[in-house]
Structure formats: C-alpha cells, structure tokens
Amino acid sequence: MNPARRIGTAAHLAAGLGVLGAAGYAFVAVVGHVFHGPVDAGALNALISLYMLVNIIGPGVFAALEQETSRAVSAAAARGEPLRPVARRAGVLALWSFAALVLVVLVAWPLVLGRVLEWRPGLFAALLVAIAGSGAVYWARGLLGGQQRFREYARTLYVEGAVRLLPCLVLLAFALEVPSAYGFAFAIGSALAALSVVPALRLPATDVTTPPDGMGRSLLYLAGAIALSQLLANLAPVVVTYRSPGDLVAAAVFGSTFVLARVPLFLFAPVQAVLLPHVTRAAATGRRDELTRRLRQVLALVTGLGALGVAGCVVLGPWAAERLFNTAYRPSTATLALLGTATLVMMLALVVQPTLVALSRQRTVTIGWIAGSIVFLVVLVMGPEPIAAALTAQLVGPLVVLAVLLVGVLRALHAPSAGTGASPVKGRR
C-alpha cells in the first residue's frame, strides 16, 4: 500500500471511529440530560448499564470473531487459498456464538441482569437486538479487514455511528422520556451497518468446500480473551451501581465519568483492525523482523496517544463531565487521572494481542486476560468502598494482563518457527 493510500485509509478509519465514538458519547450525554435528578437516577443507570453491557456482551464475543476471521482470511490469502470456505465457517461460528449469548442473557436476567436494567423488558429486548447486530457487523468486518478493504470497513463504522446518533437526537428534540426508546435507538446501529456492506461481501466461487481447520478452537480462546477484555473495560460502573443502592447519584456520576475516560479507546480501535492482517501475513511467510518492527512502532504510537488522553482527562475531564454529560457534580481530577491511566494500559495490552494472534498464541492471550480478570474482580467486589475499589481494580487488572502478554510475545518471537501454513492453535501456547 503506497503512502498516500495508507493516509487515506487511516483518515477513513479515523473518521468512521469518530462518528461511532461520537454516537456512543452522544447517547450517554443525551440520556444524562433527559433522565436527570434523583427521581430519574434509576432509569439513567439502567441506560448506562445497557451501554456498558452491549460493549461487554456483543463486541466482547464478536470482536473475537472479527479477529479470527481476519486472521484466517489473511493467512489464506497469503497462501493463495480460496476465501469463501473461511467466510462460510466464520458465519456458522457467528450463529453459534449468538445462540450461546442469548442463552447466557436469558439465564442472567432473573439472577442479576433484571436488577441492573430495572426489570424493563424493553431494555432487555434492545440488548438482544444489539447482540444480533453485533454478530453480523463483526463477521463482515473480519472479512473486509482480512482482505485489507478498509474503506468498506470504515463504511460500517460510519453507518453504525450515524444510526445510533440520529435517532437519539430526534428523541431528544421531541423530549421523549421513554428509556426503552433510547435503548432501541442505540441497539439497531450494528445491524444496519452490516446490511450496508452486503454487496461488498461477495467472494469468488470455488469448488473447495472443506472448512479451514482450527477456527472454532481459536475462536473459543479469543472469545474468552476479548469478553474478559470488555469486562475489564466496561464492568466497573455496573458493579458500582449494583453495590450503591443508597447513592445512585454518585454511581451515575462515576458511570458518566468512566465513559468519558474511555475516549482514547475509540480512537485506538482501528489500530487493531489494520495491524492484524499485516502481522498475520508476516507470520505466515516467516518475516518475524517485520513483526517486531511493526509492534514497536504501534506501541510507541499508542503510548503517545494514551498519554494525550490522560492529559485530556485531567485538564478537560471535570468540565466535560459536568457540561456535556450533565453530571450532578464535577468528578475529581484524581478520579479522571486514574481512569485515563487505566485506559492507556488497556490500549497497550490490546495492541500486543494481535501479534500473539498472528503467531498462533491465542491460548497465551486467553491466559493473560484470565489472570488480569481474576485480580480485577477480586479488588472490584471485595473493596470496602465501591468507587475506590473500582478505580483500583481498573488499573491493576490491565497491568497484570499487559505483563503476561508481553512475556508471551517475547517467548513467541524467540521460539523456533512452525513454518508457513501451521495450524492456528494446535499444540501452541
């Protein structure tokens, strides 16, 4: 890819993520203005919890589908193999993943999910719609990313963001105070984004019908890892709300502040999508020097971006939370600094992950997120004060993940090469 085209691709992805990120923050801002004060604190917390749960349950599993599909497509293309069997196998895995998630949500509703969503059936239905849409759009993005068709990839971001943003603004203009309406407005974006690129997903016909080996097992490893990464990224406000029935206003302020500190994660997301196909092809052809060089470059880029995010949280965060999200009071700069630093650590861990995936070390990725999640959950649940416990957990959990993944990359890069065309997971740690 020549430099001019690379810049154009980066601009499209950045703009698409800008629209999608703005839609997410607009959703939180809009519901913060519509549902404010002690009387509406329960509805506001339920909608913010829906926002967090969509990011945990939907992308948490289906981002794994995207990564595994992108890896398999990139590897097949590097070896000159047909892509349609990979796409078909990925579609079947998407349907199985959707069915499993629906079962989990149905079981969780009477146990804990109903309380978090205030027992509102409309929000429950919106969550199911969001899961279905996520499955479709992440499958499409995996195919497009693996073929390095990033302009079409960016189109899904534009559409998803616009469909989430515009209905919320319309509802705000009509001053409608129905939580389920806002939930559905947020939920339908992913499904329409997938439909927008259906014509671009046609692949050449082939006589090969045998599905690629190892995708299911690899997906299980990645799904576990990415679900846990989304849990670390989004669960804290949900637990704070659950643990603070007597102080819902403070919980709502923390939830809005938490979302604000996640802005750099939205700006960073295209890095994974662009990085994975490149490092996969380098790994498939044995070019580990290129793998190392790309990883160093991206780590430096992400560190700089994350540092700017921390500075932005400290300088502008208190004002933005109060003015844009209409919080009941200004959060402290210390809270925003801790959340911003935690976001930086998450970004570093997530940028190391594609290199391990390309090197067929999916199990190492999962082990890292399991270790970090255990530490995160223990601190989050056992801490005596909910918000302080959430802040501490949000920092130490990702630090554990980053340490495990970095050690895994160093070991993988110094291990003997398995050669081009190796199975994605067999016998690998």
TrEMBL record:
InterPro entries given in the database record: Poly_Biosynth_Transport (IPR050833)
Q: Which residues cross the membrane?
A: 12-35, 41-65, 86-111, 123-144, 156-175, 181-198, 219-242, 248-277, 298-321, 333-352, 364-382, 388-410
What keywords are annotated for this sequence in UniProt? Cell membrane, Membrane, Transmembrane, Transmembrane helix
Membrane topology category:
Multi-pass membrane protein
PANTHER family registered for this protein in UniProt: O-ANTIGEN TRANSPORTER-RELATED, PST FAMILY PREDICTED COLANIC ACID TRANSPORTER
Task: State if Oxidoreductase is listed as a keyword.
Answer: no
- Cell compartment(s), UniProt: Cell membrane
User: What species was this sequence derived from?
Assistant: Pseudonocardia zijingensis
Q: State what protein this is by name.
A: O-antigen/teichoic acid export membrane protein
